[in-house]
Amino acid sequence: MILIGENINIMSKTIGPALKERNPKPVQKLARDEAEAGVDYLDLNIGPARKGGDELMEWVVKVVQEVTDKPLSLDTTNPVAMEAGLKAHQGKALINSISPARMEEELPLVKTYNADMIGLLWGIDGMPRDAAERGVIAVDLIYKANEMDIPNEDIWIDPIVSPVSVEINQVKACLEFMSMLEDIAPGCKSTVGLSNISNGTPTPLRPYLDRTYLMMLMKYGLYSAI
C-alpha cells in the first residue's frame, strides 16, 4: 500500500500561513514529520492559486526537497503552477489530479515531464452516479492518455470516495468500480482520498470508518491512499 501524506495544504490553519508567507521552517518540519511517519509521497496542495501560483509551487517543491527525497504529489488546478512545480521537481513527480475537464491542458504535462498522473473520475457533468459512469469516464481518460503515449502504468485512477453520511449508494458504487478496474484498465493503479468516507461523522467514529473502508477497498486491489 502506497501512502500519500496530505498535510501540506494551503487550506490548513497551521501550515497555510507558512505557505502564504513563504516561511520554510514549518513546511520543512511537517515534511520531515510526514516522511518519518512512513508516507511514500508528500502531497503539496496549493489550491487554485490563481495569483502567483507558479512561484508558490516552485518555492514549496524546492523547500520540501531540501529536507526529504520522497517523491512529491503536486496538487493544484492551476496548470501554469503545475508546470512550474514539475520543472522544479527532482525525480518523477505525481500530478494530482487530471479530470476530463482539464485533460487537454494537463495531459501534455504528464508526457513532457515524464510524470505519473492521478485520473480523477469527476465527469463533465459532475459526480458520476454509479460504477458504470465511473467506468465510462475512466476509459475515456485512459484512451486520451494512451493517445499521447502515456502508458497505463503511469496512470493512477481515483474513483472518488464520497462521505458515507451523504450518499450510501456512492460508497457502494466506488467499491463496485474498484472490482471492475483491472478488467477495464489493466496496468493502471488506483488511489483514493480515504478520509472523505468519514467526513461529517462524529470525530470518535472517523478512524473506525476509515479503517473499515480501507480494508474493503484493499479487497479489490487498492494501490494507494491519500
Automatic annotation (TrEMBL):
GO terms for molecular function: methionine synthase activity. Residues 1-226 form the Pterin-binding domain. Belongs to the vitamin-B12 dependent methionine synthase family. SUPFAM superfamilies: Dihydropteroate synthetase-like. It comes from marine sediment metagenome. Keywords: Methyltransferase, Transferase. This is Pterin-binding domain-containing protein. Coiled coil: none annotated. One of its GO terms (biological process) is methylation. InterPro entries: Dihydropteroate_synth-like_sf (IPR011005), Met_Synthase/Corrinoid (IPR050554), Pterin-binding_dom (IPR000489). One of its GO terms (cellular component) is cytosol.
